[in-house]
TrEMBL record:
<dbReference type="InterPro" id="IPR029058">
    <property type="entry name" value="AB_hydrolase_fold"/>
</dbReference>
<feature type="active site" description="Charge relay system">
    <location>
        <position position="308"/>
    </location>
</feature>
<dbReference type="InterPro" id="IPR013818">
    <property type="entry name" value="Lipase"/>
</dbReference>
<feature type="binding site">
    <location>
        <position position="241"/>
    </location>
    <ligand>
        <name>Ca(2+)</name>
    </ligand>
</feature>
<dbReference type="GO" id="GO:0016042">
    <property type="term" value="P:lipid catabolic process"/>
</dbReference>
<keyword id="KW-0106">Calcium</keyword>
<dbReference type="GO" id="GO:0004806">
    <property type="term" value="F:triacylglycerol lipase activity"/>
</dbReference>
<feature type="binding site">
    <location>
        <position position="238"/>
    </location>
    <ligand>
        <name>Ca(2+)</name>
    </ligand>
</feature>
<dbReference type="GO" id="GO:0046872">
    <property type="term" value="F:metal ion binding"/>
</dbReference>
<keyword id="KW-1015">Disulfide bond</keyword>
<protein>
    <submittedName>
        <fullName>Pancreatic lipase-related protein 2-like</fullName>
    </submittedName>
</protein>
<feature type="active site" description="Nucleophile">
    <location>
        <position position="194"/>
    </location>
</feature>
<comment type="similarity">
    <text>Belongs to the AB hydrolase superfamily. Lipase family.</text>
</comment>
<feature type="binding site">
    <location>
        <position position="236"/>
    </location>
    <ligand>
        <name>Ca(2+)</name>
    </ligand>
</feature>
<keyword id="KW-0479">Metal-binding</keyword>
<feature type="domain" description="Lipase">
    <location>
        <begin position="41"/>
        <end position="359"/>
    </location>
</feature>
<keyword id="KW-0964">Secreted</keyword>
Amino acid sequence: MLNKTSATLMLQTIMVLMEKQNSTGVTNFPSTFYEDAELERCYNPYGCFSKGYPWTEHRPDNYFPVSPESLGVRYAVFTRRNRKIPVLLQAKDTAKIRNANLDSRGPFYFISHGFLEGGHKHWIQNMADALLNLQGNNAATVVVVDWRRGSQPPYGQAVANIRLVGAMTAFLIHNIYDVLRLSDLDNFHFIGHSLGAHLGGYCGHTLQKKFSLKLGRITGLDPAAPYFSNTVTLVRLDRSDASYVDIIHSNAMPLYFSGFGISEPIGHVDFYPNGGSIQPGCKNDAPTYQDMDNDMYKQVVRYVSCNHERSYELFTESVAPSCPFMAIQCKSYEAFLEGNCTTCDHKHLCVPIGLHSQSSYKQLQNGGLVDSNNNIALYSLTGSVKPFCRVHYEVTLKVSNSTESRIHGPDVGRVSITLVDRNNNKSDHKFLNDEQKYYKPGDLDKKLIPFKDTGHPPLSVIVEWKYETNLLNPMTWRLLKSSSIYIEYIKFTSIEYNTIITVCPKLKKPVVTNLPTVMKTKYCVFAK
């Protein structure tokens, strides 16, 4: 395990390597010999920023935010009337806000990037387009918080800068509130990735402290962990910063494993898709010293960014998802994978990931099932490519203990499953196990499996037995008869559809290797 110093060095190294792929140059901010003697620096009218406790905790270095002029923050406003060329606002310029022709009906979305990024990134435009395209969002306004000049290395300086950018954004929101004569900020939703998530927290905190206003919602997309883990709530985003705070964790691993996302639950609702650390489709192997050539930085960027970026990809997809995008409350990710949480009830609350989570949370709140002072941790499985949304089935397979099955004896292979709904739409095929498994008569096998949604629960299932001979494993040798498996039944318990369906093979026939077998409920004949 790396110590604190080497972990910090790794972070800085990775950050500098990542910076090489950005077109923007590194901003060198001025410093003086007496800077460390200061304990507080003020930028009127945004307030004063301390370098004392708690801003020194769990941080190897500590900076003041640079001046608003050096930051050069731009607020790019998009609506359905101006999707391509934004109106540019400034935090203190109320005249521009009046002339921006903002629709007071809202909703208002604020999107912030993180370290080494800017408001010009494609993912931000994709998210803005998705929000503007959402049915019923005719009056929506999307404001991109572009603080790219302040997001450059060193990382500690960028961490300090978001304190001021958050305060500036709070002043802008307050001015919009005044100009449009709004009654509250319930219709304001701040969406921030990585450092941008904590920036949203500072914005929400400033609105409450300076103006006695509370943001309706903050969504943290894999909030940054370095300099924020295990800190007090003042230093990081937490659920007191808005009426509703939801978090999508996608890269929650220790820094020495190249994890950049915070792991602890910090919102009203914390989603941990695929456990919240490593996402399917992202390369899991870290670059080695043998890989250190001219393309090393590209390998590092590819390794560290995929999991971290998945959070905003999931959120963008959640705006208009291809399936329910459901996550379920469970004691742990391991308990979730074991199939201990497959029914949505008062013990295992279900909330969709992303944009539409707030409406579900309010329903649970109205029903007295959640307490806004506590956190709910929810888990889900996704696909490895777009669309990521999947539906969850706890699949239970029972190997027959019939005379024919016992005569055939144990066999080694993999069971492949394809769901078929009432419209004959087929899901993707999924294996019950990643590797070949030794199945004996009477065995029971259970697995939680994510399938592509067909729109309806399955009515039948196509089952295949995949068998491969291994010369080193005598269990796989089949010289005189075909490899096969006698399946008594397969039961599917759906989280999304809240259904249980059991299918069986016709006439109790075996599933023979590489020969698809259709199983249906009507083929099941159980002894009474």
